[in-house]
Amino acid sequence: MAAINFTVNGSARTLNVRDPEKPLLYLLRNELGLKGPKFGCGLGQCGACTVIIDGEAVRSCQMPASALAGQKITTIEGLGTVEAPHKVQAAFIEEQAAQCGYCTNGMVMASAALLAHTPSPSVTEIKDALATNLCRCGTHDRIIGAVLRASGRARG
Predict the structure, then answer these.
(1) Of 31, 63, 79, which one is at a domain's C-terminal end?
(2) What percent of the chain is helix, strand and coil (3-state, nearest 5)?
(3) Tens of pLDDT along 17-38?
(4) How many structural domains is the chain composed of?
């Protein structure tokens, strides 16, 4: 068993992990009770489990516990609150960008990471950043509108 120290949503955490290959997704959901990241495919292909690690959107189902030491992880629970949502969360609400909601975690987290690096992205840059996040409900146009709104740009 290995003790792994990392930060989640601004709080220092230490977890004793038996399996160094155990995915971060399971630690977040089962050990820390953070249910925002979803299990979708388990292969890093759908984006439902996306978190932000040191500023980058990462698939938590593919991140092994052994790689977590010293990392700064943000889940959707740490992005904003009900009272003070992150600008991407607020824009998703305003644009009604969620339908079934299963992809929402990944879309919001990938969008937040994009805007942190590219504050005023083009539609093409938004599409590129979200291309590997699957949404089966077809709210892609609303999602793009939400990211544009969060960037302060009007949809045109």
Answers:
(1) 79
(2) 35, 15, 45
(3) 999 999 999 999 999 999 999 9
(4) 2
